[in-house]
Amino acid sequence: ADAHSEAADDSELAVEGALRPTSLAEFVGQQKVRGQLELLLQAARMQDRPADHILLSGPPGLGKTTLAMIVAHESGRPLRLSSGPAIQHAGDLAALLSSLVPGEVLFIDEIHRMARSAEEMLYLAMEDFRIDIMVGKGAGATSIPLELAPFTLVGATTRSGLLPNPLRDRFGFTAHMEYYEPDELERVIRRSAGVLAVDVPPAARAEIARRSRGTPRIANRLLRRVRDFVIVHGDQDAGATEADVAAALELYDVDPIGLDRLDRAVLDALVRRFRGGPVGLNTLAVTVGEEGETIESVVEPYLVRIGFIGRSPRGRIAMPAAYAHLGIPRTDGALE
Ligand code: ADP
């Protein structure tokens, strides 16, 4: 849940870059999506044209940016990185699109946060590789058409439900990224441990995987904290033990099933303060002092996935597994 704080740290970002696989073959898991992308890229390659536009949706840290880089790499095309929040006016997008070289892959992260005016420009650009530039105002305004170089748009979003249908419909292929299974995370960890040159035996790998919230980015981050712990407190020849993993991650407030401080704060508020709900998401967000968007795109999806939170028409409710994890008996009525 603290993907955001990590983004501020340049050296951690550099490490993240070093851990990115550069080919589909190296990309762990998401077998379905990989197969679909492979076909799409191969067809484009055989016809020597840019691949269709691709939309990747799913929670942060599941590999959307990595896949965009792989799309560019595997099709031998340059890659341009941008993001929805950086496109606040149609003019921002016009500048970006008109500077693309033929066949370039344009990655727009958090595409649901792009300005509305830019969205409309993007429809035409995606469909016809053309935009209309408005000059002048009022009755004297005219639009000047501008031809663009053909490109492949790769959009990423944590909230595909927020994309307007006309935009969603213009992607030739939409992939929903799923949380990773423990054995897949173990493979991510094994690969990353190799890159970082730390010895993480299988038992420790499994322990890190269990605590990674189904998310490769978190697995990589926890691995780095375990590495630190082993360097300082452990036996570097023996490598990381399960006890090292447990001690290191406890220090960073990661519990045995991978929930962090914010996850637990949300559960705690839901169970104690709101007596199991139902409660609206924004109320919950305010109670734990976080933005609704973070709760909705980062915290909630995983808690729903592991059966701790349910969605009802009147709001979020705590499920029995959440009570069990917090060690709170389920009683109807006053808990405080
Ligand atoms: P997103 O864009 O979805 O937030 P990223 O592509 O930035 O996620 O991935 C976060 C980190 O997790 C990167 O360091 C990346 O190397 C790693 N990662 C993500 N998916 C995979 C995967 N399938 N196999 C190996 N590493 C992965």
From TrEMBL:
> Could you tell me where this protein is found in the cell?
Cytoplasm
Identify the domain of life: Bacteria
- Write out the residues that bind ATP: 19-20, 61, 64-66, 127-129, 170, 180, 217
Give a GO molecular function annotation for the protein. ATP hydrolysis activity
Q: Where in this protein does the record put region Head domain (RuvB-H)?
A: 256-336
User: Which InterPro entries does the UniProt record give?
Assistant: AAA+_ATPase (IPR003593), AAA_lid_4 (IPR041445), DNA_helicase_Holl-junc_RuvB (IPR004605), P-loop_NTPase (IPR027417), RuvB-like_N (IPR008824), RuvB_wg_C (IPR008823), WH-like_DNA-bd_sf (IPR036388), WH_DNA-bd_sf (IPR036390)
Q: What is one GO cellular-component annotation here?
A: cytoplasm
Q: Where are the transmembrane segments?
A: none
Enzyme Commission designation: 3.6.4.-
| BP GO annotations | DNA recombination; DNA repair
Which CDD domains does the entry link to?
AAA
Q: Could you tell me the keywords of this UniProt record?
A: ATP-binding, Cytoplasm, DNA damage, DNA recombination, DNA repair, DNA-binding, Helicase, Hydrolase, Nucleotide-binding
Classification via SMART domains:
AAA (SM00382)
Annotated Mg(2+) binding lies at 65
Chief location category: cytoplasm
Domain comment text?
A: Has 3 domains, the large (RuvB-L) and small ATPase (RuvB-S) domains and the C-terminal head (RuvB-H) domain. The head domain binds DNA, while the ATPase domains jointly bind ATP, ADP or are empty depending on the state of the subunit in the translocation cycle. During a single DNA translocation step the structure of each domain remains the same, but their relative positions change.
Function field: The RuvA-RuvB-RuvC complex processes Holliday junction (HJ) DNA during genetic recombination and DNA repair, while the RuvA-RuvB complex plays an important role in the rescue of blocked DNA replication forks via replication fork reversal (RFR). RuvA specifically binds to HJ cruciform DNA, conferring on it an open structure. The RuvB hexamer acts as an ATP-dependent pump, pulling dsDNA into and through the RuvAB complex. RuvB forms 2 homohexamers on either side of HJ DNA bound by 1 or 2 RuvA tetramers; 4 subunits per hexamer contact DNA at a time.
**Record-given protein name:** Holliday junction branch migration complex subunit RuvB
Q: Which gene encodes it?
A: ruvB
